[in-house]
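agent> Task received from the user: take the single chain below, predict its 3D structure, and emit structure tokens. No templates, no multimer pairing.
agent> Plan: (1) validate residues, (2) run structure prediction, (3) serialize to tokens, (4) report one or two observations.
agent> Step 1 OK, no nonstandard residues flagged.
tool_call: predict_structure(input=
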Amino acid sequence: MLTRIYQSLASLSLGLWLMGGVMVLLAVGSFGGEEAAALNAMPLSVWLTRAPLAASWWLWGTLALLTLLTINTILCSIEAIRLRLGKSTLPALVAPQLMHLGFLLIVLAHLLSATGGAKEAMQVYQGSSIGFPDGSTLHVGPISVATGPMGMPTDYRAQVRAVTGSRVEEGTVSPNHPFFHGGFGVYLKHAEEYPFPVAVMEIHREPGAGWALAGALLFTVGNGMLLALRRERR
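)
tool_result: status=success, residues=234
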């Protein structure tokens, strides 16, 4: 009985069915409306505790399938190494495992960000300050807005200064150019100069960002190796 369960959990066909199920649930969730849209404004764990089951059922289902897919990936790697060790070349053995490891690191990254992440939007004024959990302070300096011939804003930016004890870091925040401080990212979303300089900033904390990058790199390397091996066989 246990052997049959193990073989089922380690099978490639189960992994394919699970991936298909995840894609279907995510596709259904994309039509969730305003309640699902709130997911973009807060960490995943916070949204799951606040959203009604009628709005979050697809995500709970996705998490359940991803849990099974994670187990399937680990067992599949164990079985592949056990069966192929000494019977295939090192690149052929390593390439799929790099892809598996990359996937697992990406899952870990999302878990870390879902449970330890933070996201908050706030309106700040020139000369105002933002406090951080470590006791440091971010001071907002001059806020400037560039306008085009039609009077529409074409660019905006804000000078910021982070103070941690005697340490001072200075930088400029503009669209697509955030300022990073103490594990937090400071993003400028909008700014206006009149009737007085004001800006909307978003503070993000993504503890899984590094793990996600590492996972993506490993997955890409493994995929590249696998494609190269298949070309050689042809």
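agent> Step 4: summary for the user.
The first helix runs from residue 2 to 9.
agent> Done.
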